[in-house]
Write a structure and sequence with these properties.
29% strand
């Protein structure tokens, strides 16, 4: 598969008093492929599990997990556009935490 643009999720943790910095670059392509594989596993497991018709059920179902993974895939697809932006940038008097799509 050809990747048009290598996008990463850049997590940064900075502490001001001791000049401590920690950065985590995470590839969005890896997350997307992992979620696609997980969705395939849930699709396969869905054929072997009975469908529950109860209106309110507290048990975790395969159909609910499949829907959750599909929504996560849609979320990552919407994050994968061509521009760079911050997801969050929080700063207190001692620590700064930020996440950026690059």
């Amino acid at each position: 598969m050809l990747i048009d643009k290598f996008q990463i999720l850049w997590l940064r943790f900075q502490r001001e008093d001791k000049h401590f910095r920690l950065s985590f670059p995470i590839s969005l392509y890896i997350f997307q492929e992992l979620l696609d594989c997980t969705l395939d596993l849930f699709e396969f497991a869905y054929f072997f599990t009975p469908e529950k018709k109860q209106k309110y059920n507290s048990a975790f179902s395969v159909q609910g997990a499949r829907t959750l993974v599909q929504h996560a895939i849609n979320l990552f697809d919407s994050l994968s556009n061509d521009e760079s932006y911050y997801i969050f940038d929080v700063k207190t008097n001692k620590i700064k935490v930020s996440a950026e799509i690059m």
